Recover the amino acids of this structure.
């Protein structure tokens, strides 16, 4: 490829487009996996997707992708044209998914910068076999068919432009000069030029091909068309203008109603060319044949032919333009992130300006400044909301992936499982979506593998032989709940307890020490697996602990509930967003810390009598009869200052809560509540237990954000 | 002082844009204790005056904490402490050299910025082999060079910022 050819961006577009297409393809396939066959719309959809991938991979010169997609396109071309009724549907679904997997794998390689070198020959042979099978109706044994018997498909296919709401309607009339010959052929040329851009059209007279006399009629009355299309008047004019011998052309917009009425008020009856007609290509050929029979090869003929050869490709390329005008643009995530950062900076700078020490000079009249300042705050807050909402994405895609997993795993395990999806439109920050996809996959697999019983067991237990997994998402109290529910066998307390004890995860504490929920949590411990046999999908005891870790990194948690024999429920509780939190800024000695507002239960003025000291040095705070562990941050973090203020009785005790566990910390001064832009502590500095990040304060200095969960687990370990 | 060097750096930047080789053989030198050290200039991003540093608990003693450079949060290390020498009080001559090593931004606290010098590669002598086994400052020094009767120790920034435990850089 030429050097000045920007393959980078082309490659990006190619990857993006192909991935989108593959995703829709998989969705279409999985949606109809339980039917007997694909309906026309989805056959068209798959066909179109494959066609586009074939075309674009051809341009990018990825031969194996081109070949595979071409082969699948062939299969669907056959399905579309011949409507065979003996298609083994599940086998077809498998083939389509295989192809999708193959292409996805190749795309991954391309993304990694490798050459896509996957071997396509096996898939192609299988598809060939499949195609032969459905063509001839021969079963597996029918291998005696010569494998070379590959049918030659026309290289270009006609892809009908999609119809949609934003169509416009035009009335067009062409009048030819009186000395023009064969007006019918010329009119036909115009019709063909227009077909490329229109969705639907009618014309009058309708028999321009079959009736030679129609030429005279056109010469007399003009050639009238009703057009439905996406384009502007100019584009219509341009398309018609191609044809020669035209005296003048008239194009006027009209309403949909007029279009539907057609030429009814004028005789003769109109013909409607439905461009969605599947036999379009054939019809076209027929029309041409007829023309040739008439032995009237005119220049117009060549025009038609020329158009035709270019058509398939051209339309495929134009397709995005014709598809519903989506008001979406795709933006590089990095750009979004940097915008997000910039807005974070803006928020901080705003605080720097508004809390500037210069303003604190006594005697200044700041009323105008304050007015302007509050306006500024309002705008920045809105700006934050906007960027936040821009980063919000529905969980739809993630959930659809799960569909595929249920399908694959359940088939391999021979279980019949239905996946119900609720609330897939729930929106979550993009960063979070990236983080929950894998954990969710694990949970779903676990449910399919461990949760849902084998068919016989289900029947024996008097349940519906078809298992059911529900995947639900909902918003609740500033958090998103993602719930995976199955109606399988549920969790068994005793088994879990025994297993955990045997694996030495809980020491020798008696079972009565644990609540049900605590016992269920055992499955999230590393090295725990109740499944005796390790299967391809689960049972190795890695997984659940990874799930929990992943969820924790985004500040979420996993709750497990179960009723034995009736199923279990895994709930992921995840925050809506990561980047900006409400925090309370406080000072301990000379250090500044921030605590997330949600975690703070209360502030209590410190009184000496509250403190309970154990002989081993551990300290507790008694508050209204309750006893809370007490952490002196200075000691905890080995800060240099000695904590003398604790005896000065002017400190504040902050009660913090995380997952129903409490801890108290002692601080010197409260500074105030503020919106905090969370920044990670640079990776150069090792992770410090008890700190979750840092942030910039209004004066430009840096404060550390306390990680309450970390503090509490740390305290428990001591 | 720092400003002068910055000007010089700016010039270098311009030169660097024109030709990447312009940076070759250029070293930024600075003083720590009695010694002069040099660091290849292509690692150096920026020099800032000493500013308030937010301490981070429970890290190595030479990691002084975090500074905020136009919204970027950058860890700083005290080179003197890193060399196992007694720390000194920071003065207004104390500078922070921001270096970028494999996309890790780190600030180096140095007592005094000296100069940007050009060193011919063949003038660099490897440190005497006897010293190589010594655990201490010399393992960060990959070469010595004599410039106008002064010996300058050239530092390998990658080793300088890397922790003893090689895992922690990840």
């Amino acid at each position: 490829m030429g050097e000045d050819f920007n393959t980078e961006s082309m490659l990006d577009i190619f990857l993006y487009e192909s991935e989108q297409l593959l995703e829709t393809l998989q969705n279409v396939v999985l949606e109809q996996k339980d039917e007997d066959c694909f309906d026309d719309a989805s056959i068209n959809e798959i066909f179109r997707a494959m066609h586009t991938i074939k075309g674009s991979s051809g341009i990018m010169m990825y031969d194996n992708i081109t070949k595979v997609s071409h082969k699948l396109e062939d299969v669907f071309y056959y399905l579309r044209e011949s409507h065979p009724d003996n298609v083994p549907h599940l086998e077809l679904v498998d083939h389509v998914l295989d192809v999708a997997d193959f292409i996805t794998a190749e795309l991954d390689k391309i993304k990694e910068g490798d050459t896509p070198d996957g071997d396509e020959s096996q898939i192609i042979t299988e598809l060939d076999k499949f195609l032969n099978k459905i063509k001839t109706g021969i079963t597996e044994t029918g291998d005696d068919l010569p494998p070379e018997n590959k049918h030659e498909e026309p290289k270009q296919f006609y892809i009908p432009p999609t119809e949609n709401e934003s169509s416009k309607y035009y009335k067009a009339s062409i009048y030819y000069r009186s000395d023009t010959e064969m007006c019918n052929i010329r009119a036909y040329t115009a019709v063909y030029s227009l077909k490329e851009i229109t969705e639907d059209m009618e014309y009058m007279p309708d028999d321009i091909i079959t009736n030679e006399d129609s030429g005279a009629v056109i010469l007399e009355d003009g050639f009238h068309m009703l057009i439905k299309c996406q384009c502007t008047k100019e584009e219509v004019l341009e398309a018609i203008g191609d044809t020669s011998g035209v005296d003048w052309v008239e194009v006027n917009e009209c309403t949909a109603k007029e279009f539907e009425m057609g030429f009814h008020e004028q005789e003769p009856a109109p013909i409607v060319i439905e461009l969605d007609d599947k036999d379009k290509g054939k019809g076209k050929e027929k029309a041409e044949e007829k023309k040739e029979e008439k032995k009237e090869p005119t220049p117009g003929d060549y025009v038609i032919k020329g158009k035709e050869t270019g058509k398939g490709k051209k339309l495929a390329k134009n397709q995005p333009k014709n598809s519903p005008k989506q008001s979406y643009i795709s933006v590089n995530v990095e750009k979004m992130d940097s915008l997000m950062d910039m807005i974070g900076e803006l928020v901080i700078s705003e605080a720097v300006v508004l809390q500037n020490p210069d303003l604190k000079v006594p005697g200044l009249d700041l009323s105008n400044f304050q007015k302007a300042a509050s306006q500024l705050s309002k705008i920045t807050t809105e700006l934050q909301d906007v960027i936040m909402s821009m980063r919000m994405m529905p969980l739809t895609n993630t959930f659809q992936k799960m569909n595929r997993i249920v399908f694959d795993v359940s088939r391999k395990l021979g279980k019949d499982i239905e996946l119900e999806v609720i609330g897939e439109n729930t929106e979550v920050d993009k960063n979070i979506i990236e983080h929950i996809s894998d954990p969710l996959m694990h949970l779903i697999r676990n449910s399919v593998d461990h949760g849902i019983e084998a068919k016989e067991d289900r029947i024996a237990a008097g349940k519906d032989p078809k298992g059911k997994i529900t995947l639900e998402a909902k918003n609740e109290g500033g958090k998103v709940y993602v719930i995976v529910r199955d109606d399988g066998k549920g969790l068994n307390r005793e088994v879990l307890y025994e297993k955990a004890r045997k694996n030495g995860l809980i020491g020798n504490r008696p079972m009565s020490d644990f609540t049900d929920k605590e016992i269920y949590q055992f499955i999230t411990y590393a090295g725990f697996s109740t499944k005796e046999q390790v299967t391809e999908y689960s049972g190795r005891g890695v997984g659940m602990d990874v799930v929990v870790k992943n969820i924790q990194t985004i500040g979420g948690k996993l709750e497990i509930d179960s009723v034995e024999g009736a199923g279990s429920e895994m709930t992921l509780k995840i925050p809506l967003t990561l980047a900006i939190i409400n925090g309370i800024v406080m000072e301990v000695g000379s250090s500044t810390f921030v605590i997330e507002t949600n975690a703070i239960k209360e502030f209590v003025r410190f009184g000496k009598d509250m403190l309970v000291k154990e002989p081993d040095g551990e300290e507790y705070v008694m508050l209204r009869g309750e006893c809370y562990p007490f952490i002196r941050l200075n000691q905890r973090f080995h800060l240099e200052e000695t904590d003398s203020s604790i005896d000065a009785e002017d400190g504040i005790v902050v009660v913090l809560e995380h997952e129903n566990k409490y801890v108290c910390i002692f601080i010197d001064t409260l500074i105030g509540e503020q919106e905090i832009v969370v920044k990670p502590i640079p990776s150069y500095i090792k992770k410090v237990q008890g700190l979750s990040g840092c942030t910039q304060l209004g004066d430009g200095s840096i404060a550390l954000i306390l990680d309450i969960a970390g503090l509490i687990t740390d305290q428990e370990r001591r | 002082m720092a400003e002068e060097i910055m000007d010089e750096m700016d010039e270098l930047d311009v030169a660097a844009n024109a030709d990447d080789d312009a940076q070759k053989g250029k070293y930024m030198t600075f003083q720590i204790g009695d010694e002069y050290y040099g660091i290849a200039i292509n690692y150096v991003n920026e020099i800032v005056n000493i500013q308030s540093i937010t301490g981070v608990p429970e890290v190595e003693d030479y990691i002084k904490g975090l500074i905020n450079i136009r919204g970027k949060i950058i860890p700083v290390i005290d080179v003197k402490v890193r060399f196992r020498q007694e720390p000194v009080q920071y003065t207004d001559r104390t500078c922070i050299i921001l270096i970028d090593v494999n996309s890790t931004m780190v600030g180096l606290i140095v007592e005094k910025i000296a100069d940007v010098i050009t060193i011919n590669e063949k003038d660099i002598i490897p440190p005497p082999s006897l010293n190589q086994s010594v655990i201490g400052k010399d393992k960060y020094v990959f070469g010595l060079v004599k410039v106008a009767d002064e010996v300058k120790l050239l530092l390998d920034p990658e080793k300088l910022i890397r922790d003893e435990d090689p895992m922690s850089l990840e």
In short: The radius of gyration of chain A is 35 Å. Chain A touches chain B at residues 341, 344-345, 348, 591-592, 636-639, 679, 681-686, 688-689, 691, 694, 696, 700-704 (CB under 8 Å). The mean pLDDT of chain A is 73.
